Amino acid sequence: MKEKKAPKKSWIYYYVVTFVIVILLNTLVFPFISQREIKEVGYNTFLEDLEKGKISEVAMGDNQIVYLIKDNKGDEKLYKTGIWPDDDLVNRLKDAGVKFSAEIPKQASPMLSFFMTWIFPILVFFILGQLLSRTLMKKMGGGGNAMTFGKANAKIYVEAQTGKTFKDVAGQDEAKEALTEIVDFLHNPQKYSEIGAKLPKGALLVGPPGTGKTLLARAVAGEAQVPFFSISGSEFVEMFVGMGAAKVRDLFKQANEKAPCIVFIDEIDTIGKKRDNGGISGGNDEREQTLNQLLTEMDGFDGKKGVVILAATNRPDSLDKALLRPGRFDRRIPVELPDLKGREDILKVHAKGVKISDNVDFNTIARATSGASGAELENIINEGALRAVRMGREIVLQEDLEESVEVVIAGYQRKGAVISQKEKEIIAYHEIGHALVAASQTDSAPVHKITIIPRTSGALGYTMQVEEGEHVLMSKDEAFNKIVTFTGGRAAEELVFGSVTSGASNDIEQATKIARAMISRYGMSEHFDMVALETVTNQYLGGDTSLACSNETATKIDEEVIAMVKSAHEKAINILKDNMGKLHELSTYLLEKETITGEEFMNILNS
After folding, report:
1. How many percent of the chain have pLDDT more than 90?
2. How many C-beta neighbours within 10 Å does residue 515 have?
3. 184: annotated binding-site residue?
4. Which of 98, 104, 258, 588 sits at 20 to 30 Å (Cα–Cα) from 271?
5. At residue 279, does pLDDT exceed 90?
6. Is residue 2 exposed (0-12), middle (13-18) or buried (19+ Cβ within 10 Å)?
7. What domains lie within the chain, and their CATH numbers?
8. Where are the transmembrane segments (predicted)?
9. Is 434 annotated to bind ligand?
10. Going along 219-305, which residue ranges are E strands?
11. Is 95 annotated as a binding residue?
């Protein structure tokens, strides 16, 4: 059995211990030493102190007198003087009530007194400083002493430790194909050098979070069976100017010693951002120096040695152009969100270590998770396994995975939520409004599930639509029909209850977003035609947009967006007016069941 290691003590622990030691020395040892320090005075001073009653004890030797004086605070001090012929001294001492004897206290060594008063405390604090500096250096990536302060704390993995190959990466066939050549070069460099080809110095993996960029880099190292250096871009950025550049130098030095190898820099945008030409220098000096050193090192090392730099980022638009030019990062490899087949393959890869029923249809789960990343798909498998355990089963069923999809999309069910019957009725009509409008239109995804059970994400209910296949393009009619579907819930509330609620807030947001994109980015407006009026500033992190037009044009865009959403809303109302009987029938059924499948919905609709 492996023994548990004692947890490392915090640096504050050493401060506390040292403080206690100093207090004890000051209380017990230092006063003892100070008491034994004897000051020499004249005999007349001794007589004056005796007459004034200051002396409490006297010790007389052959050639000196030592006496003790206690002040008002209780502090004791020793004094000594020489023997003077005085026959009446004993009587004076008796009259003054002074205790006297022939035992003279031993005087402390001046060297010992100096050591205990000055040298020992300094020594204690020096040792403490060494302990704290070593701890601090280790935390800042400098190793055990100040000489290694600029070392790069890159985590080194070899093939046995990564344990990843291309078989563990699914849904990224194009990225794997681009990286296979690098693996082949590391295995057979002669084949390429004979024809004069050079190994790409660097490859930049770009894509949304969770798509498997780090996994791909580790798989390349596992396939090539070479050492794998992994470091995050944030680890280069230090508090002290020049430390990041020193870490870059040390990292490439280690890589050259281990060549052939792969160096992976995650989140390279931390140090690779565009340099500011007109900005005020200061806080960015360290980052820019680190970037400059990285550019220099990538130019300096010999590609024939087999050192390959892989880097990952989800913000390629923010990277410095000097970093992206050929000769540094020669290749830009997109690692996009997986398509339908890719999602199905990823689900199967992550399901290998889970006990799953043979009847599970991964294609159905893949179709319900359009736009999901590899990390989210892995989470869906795990949530399904957790649900199976909660339900007391030893195997994961289809229903577990379908519920886990809803958990990832909308959160857990709020079983304890208290909703009045009136509000449940409004929610039921709202969701059936969405479903009925969707089912009544062409170019609209089929309804898969409708529920009015509230979720932890804040949704009081939702209508899930699942595409039958994978679509990479969206027509103008499909986009407009999506807006109509989003307005169907509010339209149902207006027709049945004659009022509106706040339940359509997310629908309004989504409908407006699609309408604005159609007009300003997709060229689906007759007035603006094929003019780009809006740009996406970050396609991988939220897709934030910014207008690229005048204020007058922006006003016209707003007017067209309002007109388009209003037109969609009117279409939804007309669809529901034509199907009022089914609206009431389906809403009553949903209110009773709380959750119905798309198949049940279509059976009632077509009956």
Report:
1. 26
2. 27
3. no
4. 258
5. no
6. exposed
7. 38-107 (3.30.720.210), 155-275+284-334 (3.40.50.300), 340-409 (1.10.8.60), 421-606 (1.20.58.760)
8. 12-33, 111-132
9. yes
10. 228-232, 261-266
11. no
Catalytic amino acids? Answer: 431
The reported pTM is 0.68
Rg (CA), the chain: 40
207 is in an annotated binding site: yes
The pair of three-digit structure tokens given for residue 463, joined into one six-digit string:
């209508």
Sheet with 595-597, edge to edge strand ranges = 462-465, 447-451, 595-597
Distance CA 289, CA 150 (A): 14
3-state secondary structure (DSSP) of residue 449: strand
Under the banding of pLDDT at 50, 70 and 90, the label for residue 187 is confident
| Listed residue (261, 208, 272, 276) closest to 230, CA to CA | 261
Q: Which amino acid is at 358?
A: D
Closest CA to 213 of 153, 177, 172, 270: 172
C-alpha span between 454 and 423 (Å, rounded) = 12
Question: Is 488 marked as binding a ligand?
Answer: no
361 annotated as ligand-binding: no
DSSP strand E in 83-145: where?
99-101
* Under 8 Å between Cβ of 589 and 604: yes
Give the bridge partners for 535, in sequence order. Answer: 546
Pairing mode of beta strands 64-70, 447-451 = unpaired
Each residue's pLDDT tens digit, 43-56: 788 778 777 777 77
CA angle 195, 200, 203 (to 5 degrees): 155
Among 151-165, 239-253, 271-285, whose mean pLDDT is lowest?
151-165
Report whether 7 belongs to an annotated binding site.
no
d(CA 391, CA 218): 36
Q: How far is CA 40 from CA 45, 76, 81, 90, in A?
A: 10, 15, 6, 21
Banded model confidence at residue 25, pLDDT cuts 50, 70, 90: low
513 labeled binding residue:
no
Long-range contacts for 360-368 (Cβ within 8 Å, ≥24 apart)? 360/396, 360/397, 360/398, 360/401, 361/398, 364/398, 364/402, 364/466, 365/401, 365/402, 365/405, 366/340, 366/341, 367/340, 367/466, 367/467, 367/468, 368/402, 368/405, 368/448, 368/464, 368/466
Sign (positive/negative) of CA torsion 184, 188, 191, 196? positive
Contact in structure between 271 and 316 (CB atoms under 8 Å): no
Determine if residue 316 is labeled as part of a ligand binding site.
no
Angle, CA 243 vertex, CA 239 and CA 245 arms, to 5°: 130
Going edge to edge, which strands form the sheet with 228-232?
Answer: 155-157, 228-232, 261-266, 307-313, 202-206, 331-334
Can you state the percent helix, strand and coil of the chain, rounding each to 5?
A: 55, 15, 35
Sign of CA dihedral 365, 370, 375, 376: negative
